[in-house]
Each structure stands twice: as structure tokens, then as C-alpha cells.
Design goal:
4-stranded antiparallel sheet, 9% strand, 5-stranded antiparallel sheet, 37 helices
Length: 983
């Protein structure tokens, strides 16, 4: 579970498995053992068939399965505590201090008091006494059980538990517990849902244990053949719930499905049962989406807008009562601003109005109508109709002007500063917006006429209302006009509006919803595979999908390869990278942007994401998939969900992963002890799901990254998430832009991060083995520790990573440049961070030899004081690099076609010696020999050996060589000064 801890007066959030909110022996164990001393088992990484899995995870999986089967193995509380203790320490041979010893020797070693010292010590180290105070009385029983946990040890351990009087439990009880621990141990080796042999061994041992109660069990599975992320997870939950009600026992949750235990009898599962199962899945998804339709209603300055998808998941009654609540709590518009605009409109209409003009226009219209009725000539009739239309427009203007003049005396055309009326008017505006968007397809004039008709507005008032802005002014003026009529009849008005809208929307709404849920039912029926369903093993014929898909013309789903009919969604509503199923669809399916075709299944999948992870701002999103090395257990899933619920209860909307603090705190710990540190945030980080039930067979967590950051920084953030979560959860990790894992756990070694930026391909394009993950965590630990020591931020780490990707020389150049910019004399800081720098440099091999040669050259230069003169204060880079600059300058100027290498070397020695003859009062034979050694080393070991004797290469690497040389020279200076101060 995720719990909250406080440190240094500042709240931090740390992920850790803790007690579940229930009272039981297992709860006690999680709280007192798992969340405490068992964590030290995270440092023990196993090998062989359990390769890369920590002992901690192995024990947790065994305990998780034990919790699920406890009702069928019929153990007393005491027996349960004994077997739990045995499971906890059963791999005692993997403890570091027991390395190399035989298992029998480890568990047989006694102290002078006759106690099995290794077993007792391990129990003390784990803190078993806190969970099982009487465990010392049962040490012999525990020893007898763990001695036989691997089946191949039975022949030489049988006598261990048969010794008279050594065990407190009955021999047949010990025998049952041995079968149970063997079953639990072997099931964790079953890494995939389709693996058979380890499951068979589990069943053999389990049935040997349950045979005492005359019951035999068999294994069955449910699988969903296509992974659609949280949509599939919700279906897994519904299936598990349905089958549990039929007496099935879910013991292992794989990505593709769940393994169950059931009594070895014929399973009666009819087509009606299957239909009920499918209906339950559809109902579960419906309830999840329907329960949060509010996510599709948005408050904007232009009014409250209802997304079309909201109509597909919630009844109008719920929608409009939510709208009513929002209207009475939303921000009130700037009335004065709108009244200023209204004033201008009024002035214009007043100046145009004339009673005489109005009467003339009425007379003209009457005459034109008579003429039209009596005219048979088509040409004349067309002219008359044109004049009639013009006069009717003039009539509207004059009527509006008359109404303005009528209201002028009391300025009745302004919006009143009355909050109740304004909020009522906001509701009227929302009704108009709804009609305009969802019924009349943004035909503004038609929408307003229908609203006038609904409220029985007179024609002359309509002409007056039409002069005002239809979105920001007119709804408020109309609201004032009808407020008195409806202020005491709001419920009646809302019911009238709902009835009217339901009638208008009835046909299209029913058709859309029915199609969507019918398609989902059909999809699930084809993809849910029950191992005991003998009628149809697999209902999905994937070989026909491509053909069916290809035959569609202009109606393909833009996100997947399904055969279902599509409807149009705007591009802004459905991100193009939401989903790619079965095979990659490279076209923007649909007539043209911004509309895209989307099938019912993708639509439902998107709606689930929308309600589960709502975001009020646009974010850059990645998805992190956590794959258990074998499977998840119900207890682990339950604990993770409760963590999320706890955060939701505390009104925490997202967890910001503080990589800086995480790696700084990691400094003096073992890699396997890394613990991600989180803090509360609004957006960036891991959003807390509204429905933790979407976390089940495997965990899919969105990562919201800072949108303004460049893609390279986002990739580094994704890498850090993957590295940290790989170790902390002891799981394989996939991070991608897709809300489903684009690879299975068998396709990767430890982590997968998607496309590596070009700048990092040199160091991060790899298979990511366990060793590579641990090595990279150490790299980041050193980088962040160095950043903290230098008072730098994450940007410092990112810059140095880019430099490191180009090789050791470039890294030292970039680092030294930063140190020079920050510190006038960087020598002591260099010594302070040198151990981290050496660890960082070891991450890459590029430039290893040349850096080593430059380091040797710096040592020669320092020991022989081969440097320029010091002019006050401390030595500067110009002085350190002076001899090197003379050498480089001559090499870059000399024409190698004219001079031989020996000539150039002699010239360099002469020029350097001349310089020291001029500045060094103690210049003599010793200095001359040192200079010759210095020049020879540079020429032979660096220029010729490392730079192929090419002046062009030297010129290219000049800044890197000088910075690296200065860095190592200053390091030697700091070491010498430090030694003096110590003396």
C-alpha cells in the first residue's frame, strides 16, 4: 500500500506494501513482517529459474497464493502461522552469510544450547516474534517443513521430521504443510498463463494436502485474447467476480487472464451462463463510465458545454441537474463589460428608429404581399419577393428600435446586477448552447427561434432580442424577461426542458447507445476464452480480421483494426495515439481532418480513460506498465488499490515523482533498496485513478510530464521512472505513448522505454539487463549526488548526461566549464566530487584511453611544476595549460609535409624550454629533462597514439583536452594541499 510519511517537517509520500484494512493473520503478517524487516530480502536477487526475481517478491507471491487457498487447505491459526513462518525463511540458503554452504548444513547447524542457530537467527532478523510470539516452540516443526520444501531433498531429510518428540505438530500435519510449501514454491515458477508443468506440480502437491479432507482440485483459466489496457482490466475484474460467485478460487493474475482452482468435477456452464458473464462485463464498464459523466461537462467563459460523449453515457435528467448546480456555483460574468457593449448597440438602434418609418414599412409590406398574391409574371414575382424580404429586415430593425425607446425611460435594456437572475439566465444560456450544439448542429438562428418558441416569446420582443449578442448578452436579457414567470417553478421548467430535449434526441440517442453496447458485447464474446467452455474454445478468428478491415472503404477505425462500424469524432476528442491494435494503421481513417472515424470499442476505451484519469489541462502523457515477473496475487492488487483510494480520500490528485530526492537519499544504500519519493501535486506526475479497480492483472499508470519540456528531457524522466519502478516493484517495466503495453514481458529483459533520442543512442540503446539497470541507477545516483553537492538542479543532470553520451572527454569538458563558471577556484570542489565523477566516467568506454593518458600527463606536469607563472592569488587555467597550449599551437601551425615528426618534436621542446628559461629562476637540467619527458609523452601517447598524429583531430579535441588536463591537474593540487593540511 502507499502510505504517507513526514520527514524534516515536509510531507513526502512513499510507496510501500502495508497492512490491509481488515483483521486477519495475513493482515498481521503484512503489517509486522512485510512492511518491516522483510524488505531486506529485496537485496537478494535470485538466479536460475527465478532469475532476477528478489527473494522478497518470491515470498510475497507465495504468501499471496496461500491467502487465497487458506479455506480449502483447512489449517488452524497456529498451523497457518507455522507455514507462513516457514515460507518466509524457506530460502535461507540464499542469504549472503550462507553462500556456498549446503542447505542441509545450514539448517542443521546448532549452537552450544542445541538450537538450530541459522534458523533462529534468520527468524530474529526478520522479526518473526512480532507476528508469531511462540515461534521458538515450533522451530523444529519449521525446520522439518523447510528441509523438505524442494521435492528432491526428500530422500535425505525424511528422518529429520520423524525423530521422536522433536516436533510439536502431528507428523501428518507436518506432511500436509510440506506439500503446501512445495505447491507454493513451484507455482511462482509458472511465469506465463499457458505454462503447464509447474502448474501440474502445484496441483499434485496441493491435492496431496487437500486429500486429507477428501477433496481434489483442478485448474481452469479465463483469458481475454486482446489487450486494451484498462478496458481489459475492468473486464478481468467482472469475470473474476462472476466466477468467484460460482465457487472458483482465483489464485494467479496474469496479463492475459486469471488461473483458478475448482473442485475436480464437471463444470456446468451453459450459453446462458456465458451471456450473463458478458452482460456483467458490459454492465461493469457502463457503471464505471456512467458514474462520472460530469467529466464531460465543462465550464468555459463561453458557457457550460456538454460534450457529445456525455449524452452517450448519462440520462438527460442527470446532466441537466448537474448543469443547474453548476449554474448556481459558477463564476458570474463581467456584467459591466457587457452593459458597455449593450449601450453602443442601443445608441445605434435609437438613432435608426422612427415611428413614421415603421408605419411606412408596415404599409409597404402589406402592399407587397397583395401584389405578390395577384402577380403571375415570374420575373416580377421574384423582384417583389426580394423587396418584401428587405422590408421585413427593416421592419425587425424598427420594431427593435421601438422596443429600445420604450425601455429607455427606465433603462430596461441593461443586464441587472441581480445574482439570482444572472444565475437563472446562465441556465437559459446553457439550454441554448445545448440545443445549438446537439440538436440543430450550430445553426444559431434556428436554435434561437426554437428557444423563443419554447418560451412563447412575442414576435416584436424577438426582434428586440435579436439585436444583442447571442452568447454573451441575449441569454441574460431573455432570462430577465421570463424570470418572474419561472422563479417559483424551476423544477417544472427543468422537467419541461428535459422532456422537450428527450423528444428531440430520442431516435439518434437510442441508436448510438444501443450500437455501442451491442458492439462491446459482441467484442467480449469473441475475445473472452474460458478453458472449460467446451462449446467454443476461441470465438475470434483473427485470420479474417485483416481481410474484413481491408474491405472497408472510408469507414476504417483510425485507432484499431476492428470490424465494427465507426462514427465521426473530432481529432481534438480522440488522440491519434490512444490505441493501435493487432497491426499498425498508418492512415488517418476518415474523410479528412479534423474528423476521424472511431469504432465503438475504441470509443468506450477512450471514455474509460476520460473518466478514470481526468485532466483539466493539456499534458504530455506516457503510460507505464508494470509486469510482475510471474503473476499478481489478489492481496497485492488489493493493497495497491487501497493505496490509491487512500490518496483519493486525502484529495491528492497526482503523485509527483521527486527523482532528485529519491536518488540523493539512495546515496549510501544498496541499489535494491531504492524507494521512490513522491509529493502531492495537481497535474504532473502519476495521476490517481478515480477507479482503482482499473488496476488489476497488470498495473497501467499514466505519467503526466511537463508539457513545455523538450522530448529529450521527457525521455530521461521516463527512463528514471522505469529504472526506479523496475527495482522497487521487482517487475518488468514498459513505458510508451500508448495506454497498453506494446510489448509483453517475455519480449524484454527488464525495461523498455520506446525510441531512444539520437543524442543518447550511444549509451542508452541497449537490451536493459538487470546488470544494466543497476548500473544506470548508480549512474543517476552519482549525478544527483554531485548536483546536490554543487547546489544544482535537474537541468545540471540532464546537461551532463548529454555530454556523457558523447564520451568521457566531452563530459569532463562540460563539467569543468560549469565548475569554472560557478567557482573562482574550483580545485577543492573537484576533490569533493571526484569519486562520483570516476563512477560516472566508468559508465561509458568511449575516450577511456585518451582520458587516462591526459590524466597521466597532468600528473607529470604537476609533479614537475610544468605550468605557467602565477600572477597573484591562486593558479589560473591559463597558467596550468600554458605548456600544453604551446605544444598544440605549434602542432596546428606546422606543415607535416615539410617537417618530420622528429623536427616538430624538437621544435616543441625548444619552445617550451625557452618559455621556462624566461619565467623560471630555478630553470636547469632537472626541468629540461622533465620538459622532454612531458613533450615525448604528449607526442607519443596522445598525439600519435590517440589522435593518429593528425593536427585536424587535435584541433577538434583541443577544448576537451585542455579542460580534462586542467581538471586532473587541479585534482592533484587539491590532493597535495589536503595531505599537507592533514599533516
Amino acid at each position: 500500500m502507499i502510505k504517507i510519511s513526514t520527514k524534516s517537517g515536509r510531507e513526502k509520500l512513499k510507496l510501500r506494501l502495508a497492512s490491509l484494512k481488515e483483521t486477519s493473520i495475513f493482515n498481521d503478517y503484512y503489517e509486522k513482517i512485510v512492511d518491516q524487516n522483510l524488505k531486506q530480502y529485496k537485496n537478494i536477487v535470485q538466479y536460475g529459474m527465478k532469475k532476477n526475481q528478489t527473494l522478497y517478491s518470491h515470498v510475497l507471491n507465495m504468501i499471496g497464493v496461500l491467502e487465497e487457498i487458506k479455506d480449502i487447505i483447512k489449517l488452524s491459526d497456529l498451523e497457518l502461522k507455522v507455514i507462513i513462518t516457514a515460507v518466509t525463511i524457506h530460502d535461507i540458503n540464499k542469504i549472503e552469510e550462507n553462500d556456498g554452504k549446503s542447505y542441509l548444513k545450514i539448517i542443521s547447524e546448532k549452537d552450544k544450547n542445541g538450537l538450530y542457530v541459522n534458523i533462529v537467527n534468520e527468524c530474529e532478523k526478520i522479526g518473526i516474534e512480532n507476528f508469531f510470539p511462540e515461534y521458538m516452540e515450533y522451530i523444529n516443526d519449521i525446520r522439518a517443513i523447510i528441509a523438505q520444501h524442494p521435492a528432491h531433498t526428500e530422500s535425505f531429510t525424511e528422518s529429520l521430521f520423524c525423530e521422536e518428540g522433536t516436533c510439536k505438530l502431528q507428523s501428518n500435519t507436518i506432511e500436509r504443510l510440506v506439500f503446501i510449501i512445495r505447491a507454493l514454491d513451484v507455482i511462482d515458477l509458472s511465469k506465463t498463463i499457458d505454462e503447464k508443468e509447474k502448474k501440474r506440480q502445484f496441483l499434485v502437491n496441493l491435492n496431496n494436502a487437500t486429500n486429507y479432507s477428501n477433496k481434489i482440485y483442478k485448474m481452469i483459466t479465463h483469458k481475454i485474447s486482446e489487450d486494451r489496457g484498462i478496458l481489459t482490466n475492468v473486464c478481468h475484474n467482472a469475470i473474476v467476480k462472476f466466477l468467484k460467485e460460482k465457487g472458483f478460487i482465483a489464485i494467479a493474475y496474469y496479463k492475459e487472464g486469471v488461473v483458478y482452482l475448482v473442485e475436480n468435477k464437471e463444470i456446468n456452464f451453459s450459453e446462458d451462463d456465458r451471456k450473463s458473464l458478458i452482460d456483467n462485463c458490459v454492465k461493469s464498464i457502463k457503471e464505471t463510465i456512467y458514474s462520472d459523466f460530469k467529466a464531460f461537462i465543462k465550464n468555459t467563459p463561453a458557457g457550460i458545454k456538454i460534450d457529445e460523449k456525455c449524452l452517450e453515457i448519462a440520462p438527460l435528467e442527470d446532466i441537466f441537474y448537474e448543469i443547474k448546480n453548476r449554474c448556481f456555483t459558477c463564476k458570474i460574468p463581467d456584467i459591466d463589460k457587457q452593459n458597455n457593449k449593450i449601450q453602443k448597440v442601443i445608441e445605434e438602434k435609437k438613432s435608426n428608429y422612427s415611428p413614421e418609418k415603421l408605419q411606412d414599412i408596415i404599409t409597404n409590406i402589406s402592399k407587397l404581399e397583395d401584389d405578390i398574391e395577384n402577380t403571375k409574371d415570374k420575373k416580377s414575382l421574384k423582384t417583389l419577393e426580394k423587396y418584401l424580404k428587405q422590408n421585413k429586415i427593416l421592419l425587425k430593425e424598427q420594431r427593435a428600435g421601438k422596443e429600445v425607446q420604450k425601455r429607455e425611460e427606465y433603462e430596461g435594456y441593461f443586464i441587472q446586477h441581480n445574482e439570482e437572475i444572472i444565475r437563472f439566465s446562465e441556465f437559459i444560456r446553457t439550454v441554448y448552447i445545448f440545443i445549438n450544439m446537439h440538436i440543430y448542429n450550430k445553426k444559431t438562428e434556428v436554435s434561437w427561434n426554437k428557444l423563443y418558441e419554447f418560451f412563447n416569446i412575442k414576435e416584436e420582443i424577438i426582434d428586440y432580442l435579436d439585436i444583442f449578442d447571442g452568447l454573451y448578452q441575449r441569454p441574460y436579457i431573455l432570462g430577465e424577461m421570463i424570470y418572474k414567470e419561472y422563479k417559483d417553478r424551476e423544477e417544472q421548467l427543468i422537467n419541461r426542458i428535459i422532456a422537450y430535449l428527450e423528444e428531440e434526441l430520442h431516435l439518434q440517442n437510442n441508436k448510438s447507445q444501443d450500437t455501442m453496447w451491442i458492439d462491446l458485447g459482441d467484442y467480449l464474446n469473441k475475445n473472452i476464452i474460458l478453458s472449460f467452455d467446451e462449446n467454443i474454445v476461441s470465438r475470434l478468428k483473427k485470420e479474417n480480421l485483416l481481410k474484413t478491415y481491408a474491405e472497408k472503404v472510408g469507414t476504417k477505425c483510425c485507432l484499431c483494426s476492428s470490424e465494427y462500424d465507426t462514427s465521426n469524432w473530432m481529432a481534438v476528442d480522440i488522440p491519434y495515439k490512444l490505441k493501435v491494435q493487432n497491426f499498425s494503421n498508418k492512415i488517418n481513417a476518415g474523410e479528412r481532418e479534423p474528423k476521424r472515424n472511431i469504432c465503438s470499442i475504441c470509443k468506450i476505451e477512450y471514455l474509460l480513460h476520460k473518466v478514470n484519469y481526468p485532466s483539466k489541462v493539456e499534458v504530455s502523457r506516457r503510460y507505464l506498465s508494470i509486469f510482475p515477473r510471474s503473476f499478481n496475487t489478489n492481496s497485492y492488487i488489493r493493497a495497491f488499490r487501497e493505496s490509491m483510494k487512500e490518496f483519493k480520500y486525502k484529495d491528492i490528485s497526482a503523485l509527483y515523482f521527486n527523482d532528485y530526492t529519491t536518488f540523493v537519499e539512495q546515496g549510501d544504500k544498496h541499489v535494491q533498496e531504492i524507494e521512490p519519493v513522491f509529493s502531492n501535486t495537481k497535474v504532473n506526475g502519476i495521476p490517481i485513478p478515480n477507479y482503482s479497480e482499473t488496476l488489476t492483472n497488470y498495473f497501467i499508470l499514466p505519467i503526466h510530464l511537463v508539457k513545455t519540456e523538450n522530448e529529450t528531457v521527457k525521455w530521461i524522466s521516463s527512463l528514471i521512472y522505469a529504472l526506479t519502478f523496475n527495482i522497487y516493484f521487482d517487475s518488468k517495466i514498459v513505458v510508451s505513448e500508448f495506454p497498453v503495453a506494446i510489448l509483453d514481458k517475455d519480449d524484454i529483459e527488464e525495461i523498455y522505454i520506446g525510441d531512444v533520442p539520437v543524442v543518447f543512442k550511444n549509451i542508452f540503446e541497449k537490451s536493459w539487463s538487470k546488470e544494466e539497470v543497476e548500473k544506470t541507477i548508480k549512474l543517476f545516483t552519482n549525478l544527483f549526488l554531485m548536483a546536490k553537492t554543487l547546489g544544482e538542479t535537474n537541468d545540471f543532470v540532464h546537461d551532463l548526461l548529454r555530454a556523457l553520451a558523447k564520451g568521457r572527454l566531452n563530459f569532463l569538458y562540460s563539467l569543468y566549464k560549469k565548475l569554472k563558471n560557478k567557482y573562482e577556484n574550483p580545485s577543492y570542489k573537484i576533490q569533493e566530487i571526484t569519486s562520483w565523477i570516476e563512477n560516472i566516467l566508468n559508465y561509458v568506454e568511449e575516450d577511456e584511453k585518451i582520458v587516462s593518458r591526459i590524466k597521466e600527463l597532468a600528473l607529470i606536469g604537476f609533479e614537475n611544476s610544468i605550468r605557467g607563472s602565477i600572477t597573484g592569488g591562486f593558479i589560473k587555467d591559463n597558467a596550468i595549460n600554458k605548456p600544453l597550449n604551446i605544444i598544440i599551437d605549434i602542432l596546428c601551425r606546422c606543415n607535416e609535409n615539410i617537417y618530420t615528426s622528429e623536427d616538430i618534436k624538437a621544435l616543441i621542446k625548444r619552445e617550451v624550454q625557452k618559455y621556462f628559461d624566461r619565467i623560471d629562476p630555478y630553470y636547469g637540467n632537472k626541468k629540461i629533462k622533465a620538459i622532454e619527458e612531458y613533450v615525448d609523452f604528449f607526442m607519443d601517447k596522445i598525439f600519435i597514439e590517440m589522435l593518429q598524429g593528425k593536427a585536424f583531430n587535435l584541433d577538434n579535441e583541443k577544448k576537451n583536452i585542455l579542460s580534462t588536463y586542467s581538471y586532473y591537474y587541479r585534482l592533484e593540487m587539491a590532493k597535495k594541499n589536503n595531505n599537507r593540511s592533514e599533516k
